[in-house]
Specification:
The chain has 303 residues and is mostly helical. It has three domains: 84 residues, 3-Layer(aba) Sandwich (Rossmann fold), CATH 3.40.50; 67 residues, Orthogonal Bundle (Helicase, Ruva Protein, domain 3); 125 residues, Zinc Finger, Delta Prime, domain 3 (Up-down Bundle), CATH 1.20.272. Helices cover 57% and strands 7% of the residues. It has 16 helices and five strands. A three-stranded parallel beta sheet has the order 1-2-3. A two-stranded parallel ribbon has the order 4-5. β1, α1 and β2 form a beta-alpha-beta unit. α1 packs parallel to α2, α2 runs parallel beside α4 and α12 crosses α15. The longest helix is centred in the last third of the chain and has 18 residues.
């Protein structure tokens, strides 16, 4: 498996993998993951070559995993090459906000349900926290409840004891948790990403690439309406709505301070300590996250 991380990824290793069969197998699987959905100029050339090579190689199956792509990216040469020489399957994720209802619907299929009112919502939220980002495991945990428990109402205690913590966190969802002001979820995601061995730089880049301070700075510098600035930054959909709510809450000073803090954390991730900041990069990321969430809790900033 190859995961594209940063602009200096060695694409030659991916191209070489396609032509190196094992001595003990006559077929092989090459998996390429591009979490950002942006392979870059060198990656575009490499993917086009990879698509052309594997199209005539019956012994190699190549799987390219991508996040949800916008219309412009799908028109790029590298993506059209993948479509021309292979098959594309779009699997839209169940967003975190919709996950409790999805779980309730799946439970209903096996004639099970949670309590009505706040108690039931608490149970569904707990369930969602345990399986976020891992829909296959969520399905399996629901099926397990169907085997272990009779039809009817499931109490919180039953769900708490039965459902394992199988959550898998998408680093690019971290910015949504921050923009939503959900500090508990953001911290849980950081803990999960660290436990899964995610590189700190990926967590930092995900938050910085969609950072509300950057949008605030662009609004000030350009004088354009916020929706136009967001589109120029390629921010739309769920994140666009979140930005429209939180960006006006940032004062110019807060935006500058948070951008500076992000640069400090970038240095810590690269091994450069800073006064007043934890030396551990994950702890520094947690501090930056707390600062960002706190900056979004106040009333709209005066212009």
């Amino acid at each position: 498996m190859h995961t594209v991380q940063g602009a200096h990824f060695d694409w030659s290793t991916v191209l070489a993998a396609g032509g190196s069969l094992s001595l003990f197998a006559d077929k092989q699987l090459v998996e390429l993951r591009i979490p950002s959905g942006k392979p870059g100029k060198d990656g575009s050339v490499a993917i086009q070559q990879l698509a052309a090579n594997t199209a005539h190689d019956e012994n190699t199956l190549t799987i390219v995993t991508l996040p949800r792509l916008d219309a412009a990216t799908k028109k790029g040469a590298w993506f059209t090459a993948l479509e021309a020489h292979g098959a594309t399957i779009q699997i839209d994720p169940i967003e975190r906000a919709a996950l409790p209802q999805w779980i309730a619907q799946r439970l209903a299929r096996q004639n099970q349900r949670v309590a009505s009112g706040e108690d039931g919502q608490r149970t569904l939220q707990f369930f969602a926290d345990r399986v976020e980002g891992n829909l296959l495991a969520a399905h399996q945990e629901i099926q397990k409840l169907g085997l272990l428990q009779p039809e009817g109402e499931l109490s919180f205690e039953v769900v708490e004891q039965a459902v394992l913590n199988v959550a898998r966190y998408d680093v690019f969802k971290l910015s949504e948790a921050i923009l939503s002001g959900n500090l508990t979820r953001a911290m849980r995601m950081l803990d999960g990403l660290q436990a899964e061995g995610t590189a700190e730089v990926l967590a930092l880049d995900a938050g910085r690439r969609h950072s509300q301070p950057a949008a605030r700075q662009n609004v000030q510098a350009s004088g354009q309406p916020l929706p136009m600035v967001l589109r120029s930054l390629r921010i739309w959909g769920t994140k666009e709505k979140l930005f429209e709510r939180v960006v006006p809450r940032l004062t110019p000073n807060a935006a500058v301070r948070l951008l500076h803090s992000a640069h400090v954390v970038d240095g810590i991730v690269k091994g450069l300590p800073a006064d007043g900041w934890p030396r551990d990069s994950w702890q520094a990321l947690r501090k930056l996250t707390m600062d960002m969430v706190a900056a979004l809790q106040g009333p709209p900033a005066r212009r």
